Amino acid sequence: MLFPGSPANAGPSPTGTSPSAVKAGSANMDDLPHKAANSVAAMEKQVNIDAFIAKKDKPDSRLKGLPVKPAAQKSADGVAASAQEMAQSMANGPKGARFVDKVRVKVNDVAVKKQSNGSLVVTAQIEISRHIAKDDVNWEGIIPHEIKIDARGCIYGLVVKDRDYYDKHLVSYLPKPQKDASNSPEGRRDDKSQYTGEKLAQGQQRKAPAVVPLTLTQKQKKKAVEYARKYAKSPNRKYHYYKENEGGDCTNFVSQAMEAGGWEQVYHSRFDYKDDNAWWYGGGLPFSYPRNSWTWSGAENFFRMANGSGGLKRTTLLNNFYELQPGDILQYKAKGATEMTHTMIVTKVENGEPYLSYHTDDQIDQPLSSMPKGEKKWYPQRT
């Protein structure tokens, strides 16, 4: 969706919500420059689509009446009109079996950075909560937004970093692995040990478990789901959070949940971080020692660890993603991708609909049917 003055690559439009409950997060709206405050007002209007889908009236912006330059107000009105046109066209169509009937939104962590040319870059975390009527499920998420404003106060760029954005822009920070690396002499080590997160004393070794379970019990899966729910929107500070320029945090998050559910870390030596038959997180300093194995945080590496011939065979591929149960894993390759794009954990199933939780962007209980449209190759996995 484009708006006056926006570039063609301004980013996808969001799919969320009514600005009625917008609250300032860490920033005081009254202290923001007028142009920045105006951009947040425009952002409130821009994230109004679900409210229209739910056929709710759009309330006045909480920032209405702030003194802003006429050009900036015109730009903001253009954003609102474009969002309204799209939303109403969607609302006029028949509602599907699942639809959003209640929406809440908060604008958190607003930050303003002034550029050398006088323009501004406003970033904010949009927290959205939607209620799925049919299944009585609350789908919650946090979507980063970035608005660019020129020196006159006109908005000329809006980027919404939702899942569709990451599918198109996120690039793995991991080097491409060597072919059959886990089956190479480098990958077959004699000093196998079980790594549990604490540092090993020099020369100390632990024996690997005799059997690595192929499936988790229902009790273990419940623990994995509980972990995912707890840390989906508020990441566990005991672990590094992989930012966008580091390849994203989706697989790191799922690995944490799987460990909470009962998967044991497998560590052979400090040289095994590239191998498919290793899976561990050590928290080491990046410049001195790998923080974790590639299989822990890389989507493609995780898949080979869980399913590949040289991996640990922790999961079983399913024929249909509607066979998924809470605690199972769903990965996909976006259109044109040669490696896995995204990793998610199933945290709920209602009326046959899997609900997914994940990082980058951070979501709890997103219905599978609402995932960004576009050609994908799905890999549902039983844990």
UniProtKB/TrEMBL annotation:
Q: Where is the composition biased (Basic and acidic residues)?
A: 373-383
Task: Supply the InterPro entries for this chain.
Answer: Amidase_6
Read off the PANTHER family from this record. Answer: EXPORTED PROTEIN (PTHR40032:SF1), EXPORTED PROTEIN-RELATED (PTHR40032)
Coiled coil region boundaries: none
* Pfam families reported in the protein's UniProt record: Amidase_6 (PF12671)
Please report the name of this protein according to its UniProt entry. Answer: Putative amidase domain-containing protein
* Chain intervals for the UniProt region annotation (Disordered): 1-32, 176-208, 361-383
Q: Which organism is it from?
A: Peptidiphaga gingivicola
All copies of domain Putative amidase, residue ranges: 220-377
